[in-house]
């Protein structure tokens, strides 16, 4: 009988250890499952495939460097076919696998359709689309990667104000992006001493902007800013160039890629375009931010033969943010990852994210550059270079 | 008039499968199940409209969307407290009742001018209706504009929370069963027989005293109500509505489902929907499987899907269900029931030897874009 005591204790010990093992089962060597929904077909497939290349590139990079918490990341990819319904079906399929988190669709309406689902399921959702509604009001589990329209609007106002452009014309499409951009501008214009002298809305499938352009011509606007995504951005640029106005044209982040410069061609010359700093990384002062951008640019070009477009940077940054959150949480549990995201500070090609309880957008105006197009390339304005030095220069950063 | 045994067995088997699936499916499967059941409600309406009333509609998604928006707006603004009669009635339930009513009435009103058109012209007019609807929603502040309506609460009735995937699957199944039952009764009724005559030849039916215009309008309104009911459940399930969720391609897909399953067949509508949804979903999964090349999703969802459609329509031109029935039934039963000779049957119907089971003889007269139905092979 006396001998049985250590035996029992032994058994208890073994049981306790195995119990620990099984409760923390996801800490084993199994890969961490991450859901990924993206438009690979349909109207937004150009965005979705760029985004996918970068997400896969980022995941491979993480895995080849030993993974996160010693575990590989495994993507469960679903095509939303540029249709919110399909995004919801894909989301539910992914939830079968109990993923640690989900990287969402680059198509904003899919993202909006998923908001409700994500909140019900309480799974962290990293969104590579800049719809302001995702973070205003804050959704507990939704974290946005690209600078949102409101952030672009603030940067544009700072630029106009510093350059003494006080009378501004605004045209905006009836999309979530267009409306958010316009609303943010009209809300804060006064604060920057700016007067919106023309305010024109247009439909997403508009092909004639003559009336808007003539309004601008007949006003004394110092600049004309257009909030648009997709085809209207291109058509507006072409028609604006044909009208040969003296008023400079300003476009926003949606135009900061080859998807705009290529179709609009010559008409883009001299246009002012706001972009993520990642697009003009070469012009940044040496420092950590520049290193991060250049690393992605070089690695991505080696693999895909082209520089990473904006949507690729968003995809890459999404993975980077998620991986940092998992490391920070020291856990692949959805709830832990969510909490870690809210206290995260990480530098990605899109800028330095600092999420908080009230702010799930994470990026400030300093993550946006103001450029002009020269020979189809985006070149930061002097004003932007000065801002870089303040924010990312050796003195500024440290 | 008696339903043959094999058909009864088939119906029973389908019902049992429908009831068991929600218990065995996983999350993704349940989402697909709900999508299939609700889409089938719309497709049953289209099948009635095209197969029986001989009218083509490429705008049924509009009524699906109207149902969704009706339910969503009612629930989000909770009108039950404002209307004394509705006090205490769960708002979600009010939405589910109002949705088919509103969609049906709008279909009725739209149908008055639209159904004066025939064939291609009607098809174009319904597409135009769809496009106009999308623009109206995009401009409408109370409907959320192009940004969409967010935060639609999940379905709950009193103390019962039905928002879960499994309970939503049963709600969808119930809605589908209701729609199929109503459709079946319409088809089996005296107006139903008149409708079949209408599909075969509008002129003949009219000269036999069938109030053609009124019947067509009623079927259009009914198909709108079916779609509206399904739309309300979908709105509760997804919790978000925006115009981008209702593209014109969705209306076309509904018609494709009806054509693949078999025009004018209620069961064909169900099987057509299941087939197309399952094929699209598995091709999507296959296209994004790890190790597939970059172009796989596009190839799968366009080329392979297209090829499947072409093959089905080439080799089963009357749709899957009518083809199977026509091939199997003669083997199982020595003779098919004859139509009742007097009573409600129209001269044209008797003439063409329409069978009296719940499936019609559809267009031989070729009403424009209407796919040719099966010509009751075997009967005189």
TrEMBL record, chain A:
Family: Belongs to the leucine-binding protein family.
Record-linked InterPro entries: BCAA_transport, Leu-bd, Leu_Ile_Val-bd, Peripla_BP_I
This protein's record includes keyword Signal: yes
Origin superkingdom: Bacteria
Leader peptide range in chain numbering: 1-19
Protein's name in the database: ABC transporter substrate-binding protein
Pfam family, one: Peripla_BP_6
Organism from which the protein derives: Halostreptopolyspora alba
Cross-referenced PROSITE patterns: PROKAR_LIPOPROTEIN (PS51257)
Domain Leucine-binding protein: 31-362
GO biological-process terms attached to the record: amino acid transport
Record's keyword terms, sorted: Amino-acid transport, Signal, Transport
Keyword Transport: yes
